[in-house]
Amino acid sequence: MFLAPLFWMLMASFSNIEEINNASLLFIPKKFNFENYKYALTLMPFWKYALNTVFVTVFCIIGTLFSCSMAAYAFARLKAPGKEGLFLLVLSTIMLPTMVTCVPQFLIFKNLGMYDTLWPLILPAFFGNAMYIFLFRQFFLTIPYELEDAAKLDGCSTWQIYWKIVMPISKPVAVSVLVFTFVAHWNDFMTPLIYLNSVDKRTLALGLATFSDVQGVDVVSLMAASTVTLIPIVIIFLLCQKVFVKGIVTGSVKG
Amino acid sequence: MKKIYIITALILLAMGHLFATETITFWYGASPEEKTAYEKLITDFEKENPDIKVNAVLVPQSYIERKLILSIAGEVPPDVVRFYAHLGGNMMSKKALLPLDDFIKKDTFDKEDFYPAALKQNQYQGKLYGIPWILSPNALYYNKKLLKSVGYTNPPKTHKELLDCAKKLTKKDNKGSVISLGYADFLYNPNNFALYLWQEGGELVNPETKKATFNSKEGLKTLKFMSDFIKEEAGSTENIQNFTSAFKGNVNDPFGKGVIAMRVDSPYRVAIYKKNFPNLDFGVTTIPYSQMPASEIVGNSLIIPATSKHKEAAWKFIKFATEKEQMINVCLAGGRIPARKSAALDDSFYKDPIYKGFIDQLDYGHSIPIVPGWNEANDALARELEKYLKGTQDAQTTLTNGEKIVNSIIEQADEDMSSHTPVNWSVIITIFIIILLIFLIIWTVYTYKHTKPGQERKEARDFYLFLLPWIIGFLILTLGSVLASLVISFTKWDVLTQGHFVGLRNFTELFADSRFIKSIWVTFVYTVFAVPLSVVFGLFVSMLLAKGIKGIAIFRALYYMPSIISGVATSVLWINIFSPKGLLNNFLNLHIVPWIENGHFTWLAMYPNADGWLINPQLVLPAFIIMSVWAVGSSMIVYLAAIQGVPEGIYEAADIDGASPAKQFFSVTLPLISPAIFYQLVTGIIFSLQMFTQAFILNSGTGGPEDSGLFYGLYLYNNAFQYLNLGKASAMAWMLFIVVMIVTYINFKLAGKWVYYDGDKK
């Protein structure tokens, strides 16, 4: 079940069109056909789009990690009047569907002169995302106070405590956010579709959507192109998931 | 000497003029094959008009409308767009497109060479808003071999022959389910109804009076024809749908595979069949009829947005692109029919028997109504037709109800708003900024007063410094759009024209709307089942995957895959799983059904095991719930991170105390990761209340059978971008917003009882 779509996608990307016609969900092509990949890479300026996508994604990850963990640290540890109200405000921003805010938001970015630039794709990441603020906060709340109290006695500033003590032990949650952000921005095609006009500024997901949409393109090359765009996600995931390995658990954690 | 100066000056002037180029932006959607033809068109145009440059932008076809609406609202419109003419009803009525009549008169553009039906699609109240370019008329595709096998060497010409031929070609298996079908064009989609109505001489809507005209004796005859045909051919619409739902996508086309013998469709399928089914021997001919021939024409026109800054140059491009020769090139590349008679009747098209089949239909072409609000009226009419074809509503009621709904939707979309107060955004924004500044000052003073100088004030300062990025983003991006949508919810606004205040009307109308109520129910049921199931299942999987065993990385990646693979591959999977003879039904029939027959869990026998899950209204929601559980990957990541945070020492201590693994799980792991579970619960509820993507993909943007998959988010989306009722969509969004706030608040209140924070100072 979990493997099937991936398997189908991979096999389809190597097969020829007649084979796929009468095949069931789990099929293996008779002859592995690499032509699809060659063709898929010519469908769009692949490397150009890949570069744009990497550029956007990297900045989004940096922005998200900083802005969200900082806000979450403030909510989890620092005291200020009106904090609860503000936190509810943060959460409430998850709840308004993007379909409604997308029109006003488009007008705002357009009036800031950012239409047809990569800024509308990158900038929001630096302003924090309520979901990840919440996620970080949940994690920070489980950290014992003792660590920070000791640092405070040593005269560390709030920034130092956040950066040198809290962040290093928050690696698992930071990695989760990293993976989420990576996937979200790597695959997002709606935002680029709305804000980008110039063909050379496009991202992979948008390039792919442009072709998956027309009737003329065949499934096999589409699957080949999709597979290529998927590879970085899988690599990032495999690299990151190591952080989740629970050291020397005695084998007693069973469901 | 002077002469030389003058000549030089003149030359310079001329050169200056030569280099003063104007750039127009052209949006189009095209396949890789067509792209070359477009590129040639543009270079040829630029060669002929050296003062105009064309910036051609390839836009995904199905999103071109939305992108166009936003760019018009944002005053950054393209100059020429290849656009579906029939989608233009709203845009034409809102004057978002430029009427081209003046250009036509000035240039003595030979309008007469175009097919009248195609021109009609681009007309609204006497003005022409687009030049027809590429046409896709419908015609009958027929499988020559299959038809010959039942004695039809020529394709059927009348309804009677069609039925006879279809009956002979329809086969059922011993359980009564259809395994091959003669003719299948009887969907609830009003387009099918329209076709047979036109063949009777009827019409859906009168474009002059903007009133529905299908509640007539032609309408009755049409409905009767459809239901009689279905009954005689296949027994019921469900039989047809169960059969056809197993085929989706171009490679899996039932006509291509030879299990449907005849179908009505447009020329775009020709290339697909030739490419994917090289052995298929098919012909294309006039759609059989009893009274008069008719066919729906879908056309791509070239339009100019009313706010384009290069109208003259844009017109020059349109004029060039719609010349006979250019039209032939572009249409040949895409396998479509040119909108000019002289081009369509050219040897390169009319000599080809397949093209000829389509071109012969053009003289009898019709178009879906070009009236404001048709998108919404279309969906509402579909629901009525569905009731009739499923036998739950008689023909006259269907027509009467349909007429009432269609009329009221058109009326609303066409309402004269001049008696209402227009929305003045600059005033609203000014007021908003003043209030905001006052509020910020009060907030600062409040903070200052409620903190003691020294440590406490410093901490408050740090708090705001840490929060600064979020606050800036919130003030600039979020707050602005959130409040704007609040204002919009009290207005009637279509994005394209100025909005008008209508008070609470959006809200009262919504509560009178049965589809709205249905969408609440669907979303509620889904949330109640899907959220707990995915929370528990996600936790279970994560516990299994938390251990540092070799090779576990692969398993983690596997479970995460569903969260990142999107689009075609996933929909292939689900169609394979949920179709009538799909994996799920096979499994159930093989393992569960015999088991029930042996007397276990007999109540499960209610499960209708022959239906496709996405066809049977009762199975649609369960199918969505199954899908939600499948996509546990992202929750797994959160759980894994939390499990990682549980200190080793606690387990060691528990081991020494001799606690069993189960006991350790419930009294150590569970409490310690409860913040993560809480997070999943809160966000899970929020997301399932907003659920949209899967609902949109699996039912192709509609609510599915009997609206059983009409999620709140989907209906909201349809209101916003299909029907252009931004006011209603915002009203829906705000109601959802308030509900989610309340649920989340309750969640937080309850959290104190079970969520354990280690950092808590007790």
Notes on the protein architecture:
The complex is a heterodimer of chains A (255) and B (762). With 255 residues, chain A is mainly α. Chain A has a domain at 44-212: MetI-like fold. Helix content of chain A is 70%, strand content 0%. Chain A contains 14 helices and no strands. Chain A has helices at 4-14, 17-21, 35-43, 46-77, 83-95, 98-111, 119-126, 130-141, 146-153, 158-169, 171-187, 190-195, 204-212, 219-240. Chain A is globular. Chain A starts with a helix and ends in a 15-residue tail after the last helix. Chain B is globular and about 90 Å long. In chain B, the strands form five sheets. In chain B, strands 1, 2, 3, 6, 14, 15 and 16 form a seven-stranded mixed β-sheet that branches. In chain B, strands 8-9-12-7-13 form a five-stranded mixed β-sheet. With 762 residues, chain B is of the alpha+beta class. The relative contact order of chain B is 0.09. Chain B folds into four domains: 2-135 and 299-366, D-Maltodextrin-Binding Protein, domain 2 (3-Layer(aba) Sandwich); 139-286 and 372-413, Periplasmic binding protein-like II (D-Maltodextrin-Binding Protein, domain 2); 425-483, no CATH class; 508-579 and 614-754, MetI-like (MetI-like fold, Orthogonal Bundle), CATH 1.10.3720. Chains A and B meet through helix 1, helix 2, helix 4, helix 5 and helix 6 of A and helix 2, strand 2, helix 3, helix 12 and helix 20 of B.
Describe this protein with a few key phrases:
heterodimer, A: about 260 residues, mainly alpha, MetI-like fold, disordered C terminus, B: about 750 residues, alpha+beta, D-Maltodextrin-Binding Protein, domain 2, seven-stranded mixed β-sheet, 34 helices, about 10% strand, globular
